[in-house]
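ok so dumb question maybe but i'm new to this and my supervisor (M.) told me to 'just get the structure for Serine endoprotease DegQ' and walked off. so i did the thing. is this what she meant?? sequence i used:
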Amino acid sequence: MTKSFSHFFVAVVAALVLTMQTANAGIPFFDDDEKPTLAPMLEKVTPAVVNISVKGKKEVHRRLPDALRFFFGPRVPREQVQERPFEGLGSGVIIDAEKGYVVTNNHVIDDASEIVVTLKDGREFDAELIGTDERADIALLQIQDGKDLKAIELGSSSQLRVGDFVVAIGNPFGLGQTVTSGIVSALGRANLGIEDLENFIQTDAAINSGNSGGALVDLNGKLVGINTAILGPNGGNIGIGFAIPVDIMRNLVEQLREFGEVRRGVLGVRGNDLNHDIAQAMNIDVNRGAFVAQVLPDSAAEKAGLKSGDVITEFNGNPIASFRELGAMVGTAGSGQTVSLGLIRDGEKMTIDVVLGDDDTAVGADQIHPVLEGATLVPVGDHNGVKISELESNSPAARIGLKEGDIIAGVNRAPINSISELRERIDAAESVVALNIIRDQTSLYIVLPAMK
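this is what came out, is it supposed to look like this??
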């Protein structure tokens, strides 16, 4: 070890010890030989982090070669659908010991018919799925007949700062419970294409396959995130991992516990990330935020008084860096919730309270499928589909043949009764999406490319 590196190592350890001493008075971070250690904190936390094993069956779509279809004739379908058994491993976190609630990622338990939770002490329990949110990749399980469970204490991700020390706990590669440490590398990461609703904590704590659904904790042992994804070649760790903030997880779990589903909040605006060019054109002296290009009619935003040209910079007191981050914060808050938006209008800072609408108020159709951009959707009422109330000329939605006043009555021959049903059926489609359109009392189909 070189002298310069030795000095650097000592400085890092000293900084870590000082941070732990300052932030964790009353929690011993030294062993009997006065060596710094995280063991006392981890001994309290790790019993709340569990291994999850799943079994089930998935549909596999296999396209037949055209030559084979030519030989056997046109009656042979282009695709064959087969069910294949699968097994998987992941991690989870006990958040309520009395009721046995466990939080994990949706992709850990997706399509599972059998879910088994294994505690750190080796005990195994069957678990029941309470509810899931595919768009945010959160699932809530309940351990059946669990006894002497240990729950983790929830922290606050809004208090995190870049540079804060964090510890990741999970079950990488099925090895069993493993602990890694690092720092918060960035906050509010979005536009990664990992999930539909993205507002990630980025960390360099090693996260690998199997860590999904595990805990990201601070040095107080409080949960600050749910580990969910990594960025690296071949799924390996290169020091870039992502976790769902605990504040978002808490909002979703409260809805899953109460309703068994997420009743998503809707603001009702279209816009873009605020960049230098927009800031200069609008004479705004900030360069980060969500620029509101349009306020949809009859939306929660219009009722609260938002206007086109507003720049939203805060959501419930937390800074907003991009339009997608705003969408994630709104989309994971429950419908009917009152939220506070900090914004800049005509160079002046102000705060507006908004009562979020639900998924069946007016929404921009690009939130459901990118090819529908430019269309505004509203429920028809009486369970008769979804209406295109507005359509921007020369938009992607207009170019595929949609018109203002069209009613989307079904997806792939299955009727839809609401905007939320339209979203669910498009999300679930494995191949192309055929929209059943009612126009001037006639029926037609418009085909969209698959999302998957």
